[in-house]
Amino acid sequence: MSTVSSDRTAVIATQQPADGPAPFVRIAAGLALIAFPVLFTAGIATSPPQASDAPADYVASLGADPWLTAVSAGLLHYSWVAFALGVLAVIGLVRGPRGRVVVPLAAIVTSLSAIQLSGLLLSDWFTGAAARSMPLEAATAMTEGVWNDPWVSTWTITGRFVGFVGIPLVIAALARAGVVSWWLLLASVIGFAGFFVPVSFGILVGMFVATAPMIVVGVRLLQRASARVRREELAAA
């Protein structure tokens, strides 16, 4: 008669190999979160220069250099795609009672917000094309009309939430759960202050500092993908 092991960990381990889907998901999500600040900062760095913050100058800048507009918008779009996919995996980093509610809530809300924001980048191609196809005054009026539409305005507000509130919210939730240090929240908040610092490259540096904490979160996911950590999780199950 064969002996059936009563060790639940051993049974689970035989059913779930170390190279199964769990580590793959964590590795993919970790790499996505590490790539996010790099892609986002590159997108900001390649944004077409504009004479001022006036709507007409914004429209003109997108129409002046189609190639640069496409590069910047593409980088920004895929940065938010990477964030939206990777941030959902942070739910699996929670191991204790703290953060059981706030981490999933923050991850889901910010993922949805990032999806909204990534879709908004398509407007850069249309705005640039409008600036090259019609008089600047008409292109500006058309662009403002679109952005002032209630549906688009709501889309914009929910999308921008991830930048100014969502990332600090995720970091705070993970810090509450003991996954990362509270110091990372300070970096995120200080980084967004770069929008209001009137110095050269202030926004660029600020945006990298604000999003860089997600690199640490990505590294945490990569660490959790190791065979040793998986064995510990199975033992604790």
UniProtKB/TrEMBL annotation:
Identify the keywords attached in UniProt to this record, alphabetized: Membrane, Transmembrane, Transmembrane helix
Q: List membrane-spanning regions.
A: 24-47, 67-94, 101-122, 152-172, 179-197, 203-222
Top-level taxonomic group = Bacteria
Q: What is this protein called?
A: DUF4386 family protein
Q: What is the lineage of its organism?
A: Bacteria, Bacillati, Actinomycetota, Actinomycetes, Pseudonocardiales
